[in-house]
Structure formats: structure tokens, C-alpha cells
Amino acid sequence: MKTGILGGTFDPVHNGHILIAGETFRQLKLDNMIFVPAACSPFKTETCETPAEHRFKMVELAVEGVAGFTASRIELDRPGISYTIDTLEALQAKKSQPDDLYLITGLDSLRTLSEWKDAGRIITLSHLVTVCRPGYDVRDIAILEQRLPGLRERLILLKGPLVDISSTDIRRRISAGESIHGLVPERVEAYIQEHQLYRKGK
């Protein structure tokens, strides 16, 4: 089985996440795509603005009815800081026959990969997939390869559409009373409205 993994705080999940996951799913002909909301990131000192249960429910709503897409609580139910290597190992431990894992990373995350816990084992357990914007300097890969030998063979660079959507901007828009229509799935927008998420004073 070829399984994609897209992690993040998803605060909130938005159409950019869905589009990137969909492009990866289609281009690599994956069997599954797992969205993994993070509980506590070792690279983010600030806490998430929204409780984990709300973030997970929004991801569930976003992937509901999308063939092959699922949401996982694997990091939310694990105590302490969430490390990618722990998630990969836990996902494989559940299988009698290991999946072929494809870990979706952003360009910024890719550039810091050598700083991740057990980075060498991450590239052993998974393929790294990055959706590149036009003009990306592939010479950066050579620099990354020096820091993390073997990366080039496990890295897949996909061409994808530009996605100018951010969770930070969505939260700002809601706080300012602006529309987020078209930026998040309709069911996620309805959930945000129902629970009055990201409103000033909430």
C-alpha cells in the first residue's frame, strides 16, 4: 500500500491543504492519504490557538467523503512532544506488512530536515514529497544532501499549483469579521461558525 502522510497543526485545515494532498495523491497514485493533526510540535514554542478536539473535528469534516482520505489521532493521543519519527514508526507498527510511506513536507520544513529527531531514519522509513513552486532552486538539494546523505534518493519534487492560503490569515480574517468563504471546505466553515472559533475574546 502506498500511503501519504500530511501533518500539521491544521488551525484550521484549509483548501490549500486539501489541494496539496489531492495533487500528491493523484500524481503518485497513492492508495491512502492520512491527515495527522499535531498535538505539540518540537519546532513551535507557542501553543495552538484552538483545542485539539476542534482541530481534529475540522480535519475529519474536511476529508469526509474524499476517497482514500482519512484523519488520524495518532499524535493527539500520544503524550508529550510529537516527533515525526515516532509517528512513522507507530504507523508501520500497526501493519503486518509495512506500507510504502510518503511524507509530505513544505519547502521550509525540508530545509530544516537535518535538525529533526532521527532525520536519517525518517528518510529510511519514508519518501519525502515536496510540492514545489515555480522558480525553486534545485541547488538547495545538493546542500541538503551534504547535511543528510541519502536524501536525494528519497526525495520527490512535485509540480503543483500555487496555493496562497494560510491558517494564520484565515484566523485573522475571522477575528476581523471578514469572509473566509472559498478558503476552507464548506463543512469546516460551518463548524467554525457554529462553535464561534477564532472570534475576538473567544
Task: Give an overview in words.
With 202 residues, this protein is an alpha/beta fold. The protein has a single domain, classed as 3-Layer(aba) Sandwich (Rossmann fold), CATH 3.40.50.620. 39% of the residues lie in helices and 16% in strands. The protein contains nine helices and six strands; from the N terminus they run βαβαβαβααβααβαα. The chain has helices at 15-27, 52-63, 84-93, 107-111, 119-125, 139-147, 151-154, 167-175, 186-195; strands at residues 2-8, 32-37, 69-71, 100-104, 126-132, 155-159. β2, α2 (52-63) and β3 (69-71) form a beta-alpha-beta unit. α2 (52-63) packs antiparallel against α9 and α3 packs parallel to α5 (119-125). The chain is globular and about 50 Å long. The model has no long low-confidence stretch (mean pLDDT 89).
Task: Kindly report the average pLDDT value.
Answer: 89
- Return Rg in Å: 17 Å
Shape: globular
Question: Considering the protein shown, what is the CATH homologous superfamily?
Answer: HUPs
Helix fraction?
25-40%
Strand content: 15-25%
CATH architecture grouping: 3-Layer(aba) Sandwich
Please indicate the count of domains.
Answer: 1
Largest sheet data: 6 strands, parallel
Number of DSSP strands? 6
Class by SSE composition: alpha/beta
Spans of at least 5 consecutive residues with low confidence: none
* CATH structural fold name: Rossmann fold
* Count of DSSP-assigned helices: 9
